[in-house]
Amino acid sequence: MQLGMIGLGRMGGNMVTRLEQAGHDLKSYARSGGGTASSLEELRDQLDAPRAFWMMVPAGDPTEDVFKTLLTLAEQGDAIVDGGNSNFRDSQRRYAEAREHGIQFVDAGVSGGVWGLKLGYCLMVGGDDDAVARLEPIFTALAPENGYAHTGAAGAGHFTKMVHNGIEYGLMQAYAEGFEVLQKSEFDLDLAEIAGIWRYGSVVRSWLLELLYDAFTEEGSDLARIAGWVQDSGEGRWTIAEAIAEDVPVPVISAALYARFASRQEESFAAKVNAALRAQFGGHAVKEEA
Asked: Rounded to whole angstroms, how far apart are CA atoms 139 and 54?
């Protein structure tokens, strides 16, 4: 099948390679260059109608800009896939806008990171049945066996991926806290060794744990080179917002997101307030600034 990939970063570039290895005909465009086309218009002209475009660019304005441009370039019967981490409500809106132009729109939640080229990408796809069926050869080539599902109507793919990433926040934070307890204990523990044995037979074994073992092996158990500053790309916030709207308690995901916020503070003003209050009501000593 023929596909036009837009965005050749860590994910998009590897996805092109995986699809080409599966025998698909890939055309591509990236703002930074390196694709078969030097513009979106040229990419359109390289594809046979009905065309299929796959956006693999950052969520937010970059995705919106590409989508709006494609609406002016694509023709009736063409399809647009958003494989980025867009908010599912944006995907529902884009589906409606594309439909007004006679263009199919599919939202694809993609998980797999830099390992996807070798291991495949888990795909959570939302959209109309006919659009998804038409693009299914692409989805099945990208995914490992049993790693792809048409999760529902427009927006369902990105909604599912949003919750997936919210769960990921909680899992990562649990590992992070547990290994800090191990690292600060009275015992001289080899964290790489512990992560290593937990990969076999333990009820906490997972791919994340395998990656943590790799990190300890490559970086050392103290992770000295890595700063404790953790970004979030939005999905955790969106998951919590939807949970609030649904009256669903998500204390673990919420705490994990707040821990990421705390990691970015050189010094917490809230901690200053806590220390000041303890000094006021209990006469507790405070640690003064250097």
From this structure: 11
